[in-house]
Amino acid sequence: MPREILLNAFSMNTVGHVSPGLWTHPRDRSTEYHRLATWTGLAETLERGLFDGLFLADVLGVYDVHRGGPDGALRHAVQLPINDPLLLVSAMAHVTRHLGFGVTANLSWDTPYQLARRFSTLDHLTEGRIGWNIVTGYLASAARAMGAEMAAHDERYDLAEDFMALAYRFWEGSWEEGAAIRDRASGVFADPARVHTIRHAGPHFHAKGIHLCEPSPQRTPLLYQAGTSRAGRAFAGRHAECVFVSGPSVPVIAPRVAALREAAVAAGRAGDDLKVFSALTVIVAETAGEARALEAEYRRHASGEGALVLMSGWTGLDFGAFEPDQEVRHIESDAMRTALENVTARGDPTRRWTVREVAEFVAIGGVAPVLVGSAAEVADAIEDWVDRTGVDGLNLSSVVFPETFERIAALLVPELQRRGRVKRAHRPGTLREKLFGRARVADTHPAACYRVRPG
Ligand SMILES: Cc1cc2nc3c(=O)[nH]c(=O)nc-3n(C[C@H](O)[C@H](O)[C@H](O)COP(=O)(O)O)c2cc1C
Fold first, then answer.
1. Ligand 1 close to Cβ of residue 416 (< 6 A)
2. In this structure, how many other beta carbons lie within 10 angstroms of the beta carbon of residue 269?
3. pLDDT by residue (tens digit) across 343-380?
């Protein structure tokens, strides 16, 4: 039996996600990102198209590394303006029954008490379809806007470790199952003996309190993480249930996937306790010729400068300071370490990239392969990619929004279904049940040790 491929749509509550400049295409509707109907319409398309989830990226801060300021980001709408993604979820949940939501939220400027409540609320309202993409942020511009300094790379992961321990206590350790007895006859809503005050004294957080929400279907939301440096992999190995990776080729991605599974095993979990999703862009049409024409049409709207604004923000390195034909070389930065590895010999020793090549490549779909062709051609390439990288699923971004997703739903998904690679119907249950067949985090997951036992 061929292995099933999980499908997420990859988007962001903004104009230009990972295809800068494409907002100028006459059919692109991402400029309507600030209208609810844009998102409810997308959710309906994805549910109909048998997508497992919508993965929403988010960044706090502006991309101002390129030429030392935010002008490029503003001019090309490079993930700016950007609205809060969590606030989209209730409306999209209302028009769907199965679609999962993996939503990015930055913990560096939040407290576990408040964040735990927001995700519990959404877990209730979505009936267990919420996931949290745990990020700590990589933009110094956000730190400055908060009146603070950005913590160094590995320190951010230390903070995240303590944050998670406290969040797990709230989700798993405060309310016993069934503590909300809702007994109209006795007039008792919740049994005080079964709701526990949690106590936490960690290096970053001290707390004593009761979780504000009664237990939600999943309790701890399905946990996503994206970060593949050494510290990032160790964090994923301990905490993530799903990991998002992005890179241009099999030689870059396959070792990352293997290293992530090893990190899970090192943390006392199983390699397949992690579902790894990789970024991919698909331009699919009825025929190969139409698909290539579509790609050419899209490329006329792509912004190379916008791509360098993105890359500068991701890597912390000002790509505007280099000549177009200069080769990109690795330096260690405090931003996303693997973002630079993607286009240097660190990621793939056989491949060299100039600044111009990076601009062209990143302008459509960021640092991910672009597959162009008929449904059969793209499905061949996807099967090959999945089998050679070892990923479990794909985060598919749009080039023209939401046209790309509509084409995938109409043309590609039926082809992958024919090959037995995509399910033919949604599975019942919560997001975790659909993906892992279990209601709660695995017993080997660190959240499990905070579970409150009856009595
Ligand atoms: C594929 C990918 C997607 C990411 N998406 C986001 C995001 O939406 N928001 C965010 O703040 N950080 C995002 N990050 C950044 C990571 O959460 C992390 O802060 C960063 O990669 C630095 O960690 P690393 O050096 O371990 O990769 C992403 C990273 C990767 C590799």
1. no
2. 22
3. 888 888 888 889 999 999 999 999 999 999 999 999 99
